[in-house]
């Protein structure tokens, strides 16, 4: 035994990556930085920060690519899934716009207007559209001298209610207005947008509001009570007439009626599945598809949805929210044409707001 400490424990040599808590090699990044920027002074923290950013971006792309592989029922990530992950995320698409992924294939770039559903469902050829545009509008008649025109600013603003009056201007192009907070927004691949909004769903200005209900179209739920309070007896009578024709409504089926006393023109009632059902996710998917199909049938441009079928458990709530968002994004990809341009998730409970905000942030479609 030596007199200088004996068998002293050897110190394990740690790398710069280990000291920084990273997986990516900090020393190698530092070496590359010195090669490419040899005429600059490189701070000791620069390669650490560079490696951390690279590691974060890689993890983000791998997560989205894994979701793409899962959606395509594949157990292994291929370059095609990485391409889909980057293309469907706005920030990554802007960052890696000029990057070519080997063996990733290509993505079709279809202008949204080519898929737009025209009123009446009739398709027009480019020649027909051109001839329609060339038609001269009718010349307005001159007003008489004794009746001067009123200024546009003096025109009365449309009132709420009265068969769901919402004004001639589309609700898609309007602001949310007072009492609403925009928390998250996502633009889909074909131009449609989804957003999470906090506020009273009965007061939001959209073409249609979705009311989760039961087979008898009861207005006892949170959304039903809000619409009942705003719409009054006229709306209750409208729902009763609808119930006579449509009830009992099967689970996940939807029916539509006109709105009264609130900005929305229509109300889409859906027999919402409960989280306790064994096939809850399949029922939620079917309910969302029926809502979107009914909105397209009425040529609606914007709808407001509450949380449909969300359960008490956080894990189950997250799965239902994932199913809802994925069903919406898949619907716009598979349908030939859609009039819908904006989907607003309007809710008040913080649990639902947090779930939708979190899942929308990592949406891959």
Automatic annotation (TrEMBL):
One of its GO terms (cellular component) is nucleus. Residues 121-172 are annotated as: Disordered. It is found in: Chromosome; Nucleus. Keywords: Chromatin regulator, Chromosome, DNA-binding, Isopeptide bond, Nucleosome core, Nucleus, Ubl conjugation. GO terms for biological process: chromatin organization. Residues 141-157 have a biased composition (Basic and acidic residues). GO terms for molecular function: DNA binding; protein heterodimerization activity; structural constituent of chromatin. Pfam families: Histone, Histone_H2A_C, Macro. SMART domains: A1pp (SM00506), H2A (SM00414). Belongs to the histone H2A family. This is Core histone macro- -like. It comes from Paramuricea clavata (Red gorgonian).
